[in-house]
From TrEMBL:
Its cofactor is Zn(2+). GO terms for molecular function: carbonate dehydratase activity; zinc ion binding. This is Carbonic anhydrase. Zn(2+) binds at residues 110, 113. Belongs to the beta-class carbonic anhydrase family. Coiled coil: none annotated. Binds 1 zinc ion per subunit. It comes from the Bacteria.
Protein backbone atom coordinates (compact mmCIF):
# COMPACT_ATOMS: atom_id res chain seq x y z
CA UNK A 1 0.00 0.00 0.00
CA UNK A 2 1.30 3.41 -0.84
CA UNK A 3 0.31 6.73 0.66
CA UNK A 4 -2.86 7.22 -1.40
CA UNK A 5 -3.89 3.62 -2.09
CA UNK A 6 -7.05 3.94 -0.01
CA UNK A 7 -8.35 6.28 -2.68
CA UNK A 8 -8.17 3.74 -5.51
CA UNK A 9 -11.33 1.95 -6.61
CA UNK A 10 -9.30 -1.22 -7.23
CA UNK A 11 -8.40 -1.27 -3.51
CA UNK A 12 -11.99 -0.90 -2.26
CA UNK A 13 -13.56 -3.93 -0.55
CA UNK A 14 -15.94 -5.67 -2.92
CA UNK A 15 -14.58 -4.00 -6.03
CA UNK A 16 -13.50 -6.46 -8.72
CA UNK A 17 -11.84 -5.05 -11.82
CA UNK A 18 -12.67 -8.18 -13.78
CA UNK A 19 -16.41 -7.84 -13.25
CA UNK A 20 -16.56 -4.02 -13.36
CA UNK A 21 -19.31 -3.09 -15.80
CA UNK A 22 -18.72 0.62 -15.93
CA UNK A 23 -19.81 3.64 -13.96
CA UNK A 24 -22.81 4.85 -15.95
CA UNK A 25 -25.08 4.24 -12.94
CA UNK A 26 -22.97 6.76 -10.98
CA UNK A 27 -22.52 9.29 -13.80
CA UNK A 28 -24.71 8.95 -16.93
CA UNK A 29 -21.96 10.17 -19.23
CA UNK A 30 -22.75 9.80 -22.95
CA UNK A 31 -21.13 12.71 -24.79
CA UNK A 32 -17.50 13.85 -24.97
CA UNK A 33 -16.89 17.40 -26.19
CA UNK A 34 -13.39 18.26 -27.39
CA UNK A 35 -12.61 21.97 -27.58
CA UNK A 36 -9.81 24.51 -27.18
CA UNK A 37 -8.66 25.55 -23.71
CA UNK A 38 -8.85 29.23 -24.68
CA UNK A 39 -10.80 30.86 -21.78
CA UNK A 40 -12.92 32.75 -24.32
CA UNK A 41 -14.26 29.39 -25.46
CA UNK A 42 -15.33 28.23 -21.98
CA UNK A 43 -19.06 28.37 -22.79
CA UNK A 44 -18.73 25.77 -25.55
CA UNK A 45 -19.93 22.78 -23.46
CA UNK A 46 -23.11 24.63 -22.45
CA UNK A 47 -23.77 25.63 -26.08
CA UNK A 48 -23.28 22.04 -27.26
CA UNK A 49 -25.57 20.69 -24.52
CA UNK A 50 -28.30 23.10 -25.62
CA UNK A 51 -27.79 22.26 -29.31
CA UNK A 52 -27.96 18.50 -28.78
CA UNK A 53 -30.75 18.71 -26.20
CA UNK A 54 -31.32 15.75 -23.85
CA UNK A 55 -28.06 16.56 -22.05
CA UNK A 56 -27.40 17.56 -18.45
CA UNK A 57 -24.74 20.27 -18.08
CA UNK A 58 -23.28 21.36 -15.76
CA UNK A 59 -25.36 19.12 -13.46
CA UNK A 60 -24.53 18.48 -9.82
CA UNK A 61 -22.80 16.12 -7.45
CA UNK A 62 -24.69 13.16 -5.96
CA UNK A 63 -23.73 12.63 -2.32
CA UNK A 64 -24.19 9.60 -0.07
CA UNK A 65 -25.38 9.97 3.55
CA UNK A 66 -21.79 10.62 4.65
CA UNK A 67 -21.32 13.40 2.13
CA UNK A 68 -19.06 11.44 -0.18
CA UNK A 69 -19.27 12.32 -3.85
CA UNK A 70 -20.52 9.04 -5.26
CA UNK A 71 -21.88 10.31 -8.53
CA UNK A 72 -22.88 13.26 -10.68
CA UNK A 73 -25.85 14.09 -12.88
CA UNK A 74 -23.77 15.44 -15.82
CA UNK A 75 -24.07 13.62 -19.15
CA UNK A 76 -21.57 15.66 -21.16
CA UNK A 77 -17.84 15.56 -20.43
CA UNK A 78 -15.22 17.96 -21.71
CA UNK A 79 -11.67 17.55 -22.93
CA UNK A 80 -9.69 20.65 -23.72
CA UNK A 81 -6.37 21.05 -25.52
CA UNK A 82 -4.65 23.49 -27.88
CA UNK A 83 -7.11 24.07 -30.72
CA UNK A 84 -9.58 21.43 -29.54
CA UNK A 85 -8.02 18.77 -31.74
CA UNK A 86 -9.34 15.24 -31.84
CA UNK A 87 -5.91 13.66 -32.31
CA UNK A 88 -4.90 14.74 -28.80
CA UNK A 89 -8.11 13.34 -27.26
CA UNK A 90 -8.09 9.79 -28.62
CA UNK A 91 -6.98 8.19 -25.37
CA UNK A 92 -9.87 9.90 -23.58
CA UNK A 93 -12.38 8.48 -26.05
CA UNK A 94 -11.07 4.95 -25.50
CA UNK A 95 -10.81 5.15 -21.69
CA UNK A 96 -14.14 6.94 -21.28
CA UNK A 97 -15.78 4.25 -23.40
CA UNK A 98 -14.32 1.66 -21.02
CA UNK A 99 -15.59 3.39 -17.89
CA UNK A 100 -18.81 4.78 -19.31
CA UNK A 101 -20.48 4.18 -22.65
CA UNK A 102 -19.71 6.95 -25.09
CA UNK A 103 -22.50 7.70 -27.57
CA UNK A 104 -21.39 11.03 -29.06
CA UNK A 105 -18.03 12.69 -29.67
CA UNK A 106 -18.21 16.38 -30.53
CA UNK A 107 -15.30 18.45 -31.87
CA UNK A 108 -15.57 22.24 -31.67
CA UNK A 109 -13.09 24.69 -33.23
CA UNK A 110 -13.49 28.38 -32.41
CA UNK A 111 -13.03 31.78 -34.07
CA UNK A 112 -9.73 33.60 -33.51
CA UNK A 113 -8.09 30.47 -32.15
CA UNK A 114 -4.42 30.86 -31.26
CA UNK A 115 -3.63 27.95 -33.54
CA UNK A 116 -4.54 30.14 -36.53
CA UNK A 117 -1.44 32.29 -35.83
CA UNK A 118 0.97 29.62 -37.04
CA UNK A 119 1.61 26.75 -39.40
CA UNK A 120 2.79 23.27 -38.43
CA UNK A 121 6.12 23.97 -40.17
CA UNK A 122 6.67 27.22 -38.25
CA UNK A 123 5.98 25.53 -34.91
CA UNK A 124 8.41 22.71 -35.67
CA UNK A 125 11.12 25.05 -37.00
CA UNK A 126 10.87 27.58 -34.17
CA UNK A 127 10.95 24.82 -31.58
CA UNK A 128 14.09 23.49 -33.19
CA UNK A 129 15.70 26.92 -33.32
CA UNK A 130 14.87 27.81 -29.72
CA UNK A 131 15.37 24.48 -27.97
CA UNK A 132 17.38 22.31 -30.40
CA UNK A 133 14.62 19.75 -30.06
CA UNK A 134 12.97 17.85 -32.88
CA UNK A 135 9.21 17.55 -32.42
CA UNK A 136 8.52 16.91 -36.11
CA UNK A 137 7.43 13.30 -35.69
CA UNK A 138 5.83 13.51 -32.23
CA UNK A 139 2.37 14.71 -33.25
CA UNK A 140 -0.15 14.50 -36.05
CA UNK A 141 1.18 17.37 -38.18
CA UNK A 142 -2.23 18.47 -39.48
CA UNK A 143 -3.39 18.89 -35.88
CA UNK A 144 -0.66 21.38 -34.92
CA UNK A 145 -2.37 24.38 -36.51
CA UNK A 146 -5.80 25.28 -37.85
CA UNK A 147 -5.24 26.45 -41.44
CA UNK A 148 -8.95 26.46 -42.38
CA UNK A 149 -11.87 25.76 -40.07
CA UNK A 150 -13.92 23.56 -42.37
CA UNK A 151 -10.79 21.58 -43.27
CA UNK A 152 -9.73 21.15 -39.63
CA UNK A 153 -13.20 20.01 -38.53
CA UNK A 154 -13.56 17.56 -41.42
CA UNK A 155 -10.02 16.29 -40.75
CA UNK A 156 -10.80 15.64 -37.09
CA UNK A 157 -14.12 13.88 -37.73
CA UNK A 158 -12.56 11.70 -40.45
CA UNK A 159 -9.63 10.89 -38.16
CA UNK A 160 -12.00 9.85 -35.36
CA UNK A 161 -14.06 7.71 -37.75
CA UNK A 162 -10.98 5.86 -38.99
CA UNK A 163 -9.37 5.43 -35.56
CA UNK A 164 -9.49 2.03 -33.81
CA UNK A 165 -9.82 3.99 -30.53
CA UNK A 166 -13.31 5.16 -31.53
CA UNK A 167 -16.04 2.48 -31.50
CA UNK A 168 -17.90 2.43 -34.82
CA UNK A 169 -21.36 3.08 -33.32
CA UNK A 170 -20.35 6.47 -31.89
CA UNK A 171 -22.01 9.52 -33.46
CA UNK A 172 -19.56 12.27 -34.47
CA UNK A 173 -20.22 16.01 -34.79
CA UNK A 174 -18.00 18.94 -35.79
CA UNK A 175 -18.96 22.54 -34.94
CA UNK A 176 -17.57 26.01 -35.50
CA UNK A 177 -18.04 28.33 -32.49
CA UNK A 178 -17.89 32.12 -32.79
CA UNK A 179 -16.47 33.36 -29.49
CA UNK A 180 -18.08 36.82 -29.40
CA UNK A 181 -21.66 35.89 -30.32
CA UNK A 182 -21.54 32.39 -28.86
CA UNK A 183 -23.05 31.06 -32.11
CA UNK A 184 -22.50 27.38 -32.74
CA UNK A 185 -22.63 26.20 -36.37
CA UNK A 186 -22.70 22.54 -37.33
CA UNK A 187 -20.13 21.90 -40.07
CA UNK A 188 -19.96 18.13 -40.24
CA UNK A 189 -21.72 15.13 -38.77
CA UNK A 190 -21.09 11.41 -39.18
CA UNK A 191 -23.91 9.26 -37.83
CA UNK A 192 -23.50 5.51 -38.35
CA UNK A 193 -26.44 3.81 -40.08
ZN1 LIG B 1 -8.17 28.15 -29.48
Amino acid sequence: MSKFSDYEYRKQPGFDMNTFEGANQAIPMKTLVIHCFDPRAAEIPKAVAEYLGDEVYPGENILDESGNRVGHTRTLFVETNAGGRAAFALESVASMDYIFSVQNVVVVHHSFCGTTTLTPELLIEEFHDHYHADISTLFDRDSLAIMDFETSLKHDIAMLRSSPAVPKHIKLYGFFYEISSGKLTEVVRDIPA
